[in-house]
Give the backbone structure.
Amino acid sequence: MSALLKANAPPLVKLRDLHVTFRTRDRTVHAVNGVDLDLAAGEVLCILGESGSGKSVTLRALMKLLPKFAHISGGIEVGGRDVNAMSNSQLADFRGGEVAMIFQEPMTALDPVFTVGRQIAETVQRHEGVSRATADARALELLELVQIPSARRRLAAYPHELSGGLRQRAMIAVALACRPKLLLADEPTTALDATVQIQVLLLLRELQERLGMGVIFVTHDLGVAGEIADRVAVMYAGRVVEEGPVAGIMAGPLHPYAQGLLGATVHPGMRGKRLTTIPGAPPTLDVAPTTCAFSPRCDHAEAACVAGVPPLLQASPGRFARCIRVRNGTQS
Amino acid sequence: MDALDPTPDRGGPAQPLLAVKGLVKHFPLKGGLLGRTQAVVRAVDDVGFDVLKGETLGIVGESGCGKSTTARLLMRLLEPNAGTMIFDGEPVGENVQAGGLTLREYRRQVQMVFQDSYASLNPRLPIEETIAFAPRIHGLSGHESVVRARELLAAVGLAPESFARRYPHELSGGQRQRINIARALALRPKLVILDEPVSALDKSVEAQVLNLLVDLKAEFGLTYVFISHDLNVVQYISDRVLVMYLGEVAEMGPVGAIYDRPAHPYTRALLDSRPSMDPANRRTKPPLTGDPPNPVNPPSGCRFRTRCSHAEDVCAARKPLMADLGGGHIVSCHMATPDSGHSRAGSLAA
């Protein structure tokens, strides 16, 4: 799918050399250190990484949802518009209109003092200027779209009256209220039980296909990426270290960090075997890494790894890794 | 150091280390003007199992199934409404004159590790003092208990010279979980109850802690009860697995039987809910719809029947008996009992 779309249409999302630095009185954290990412219309990209890899910060930067003390530089384009240059009122139209976001914890994303139906209708009224009655009708349609049983009755429910899975669906309904072209998802299934997680994943996949949205889905769970992604970008210490179609990355990652992550993820058939671990810990990011950030933990590190930040090298069409050992289709 | 040597084995290898029978814990929900009991949460309802010496018993289930309440009951952090616990042949907390174990003796041999590594450490104590605290309470001198704390720090892979005087906030989540494990081992327990010990950790750290748990089990001759919602982790670490649903045992058996030949429809649905790990072969249909029901008013008969595709009248009318499928594999489902009245009765029998 991605190859087909990449050929002609301009990308829906274009991130160029994105840097995000958090500066407080006590310390500075270089959370994102030069991220380039493209997303085609209708494509699903998973950003995979562990805590502190910069995956959520990258996602929030796309909607300018970062605190005031965050310094953002680089190009952020969504649908051909420069997000950095938007005024506050333009941003207000943009968020929830063209781009919507869903979160891990629906209880904090939904307003506890309004009914679910009102919150959806409010979004529709705000962005489309339609009447209350039209908006209420849309709210019902949306609850049915996200497959909430007895949707008409649930319109009048407050968030606390819903179960975790239904709340997550209600939040998705709010996000989809104005048919966004881009949906940003920040670990939306992480807090759910296994039997509910798969329901929500399959729902998101179905809605994405039906509505033709582009989706950027942040997760730490390789299995979730395998269920939903077209393409995967693995982040480490604020940079993309590997990028490519999901099947290739899950079958054989190229970057040593991605290899370590796959080896450390417990899956069936590993019983009795010792788990592969990645020694050490990620860097603190008090300064932006000027070498391969993974080199202190890497078995293959050599002098060239600390000579500078390795470029993202192409291993095969559409497949990139930020490792000096990757050369043109092979790994030396 | 004889004050706190490991306690000797009593009943021999065939005696279960812990035998739990008929464990019940109900939480009253109070409300209204007079604070009367409005409803009862049946968190754990007649749960029984054995923990064999030297094994790892995994307990899986979704939120509200009672797995964490079970952990707290095993540790006697909660007082059960009914049920008995026999630790290596001795009843726990009752009949102390007639040979029962006092809670103090029991807790020396049974320790617990919690999910939240930060909340379970005292933020104002350097970590070596956190670990040394329990041995000192149980009679070791200050010096001896600190020596033991430093040995344990080394055993969990944290160099005592650089870590002993640090405070919990100076450590990462994985390091803090190692401290919690060291503290749990400080009294040389026989049984360690691990309640979601790796659920809050990143994958690469999770693997380190799982490897450590496997090593420590061999080194100290431990028995584990490992509670988790992560089916892959439970499969990796457990010898036997107990599947809980709404406060009851749905199925229990050796890890191979549970994962290769799951008998209970709920166990099958749980296993089928795991991501496929193969983008070419994605899941197409969720195995279950809806969320787990509220344990306040559990369904009559079989508690899973409201989400079960095989549910029939008999499932609402009667609670299923525990059926023995052989090899220690038991399941609570009408389809496994030959004369239960279910149209597929006996179809699961061994």
Observations:
- Residues 262-336 of chain B form one domain.
- Residues 203-220 of chain B form the longest helix (18 residues).
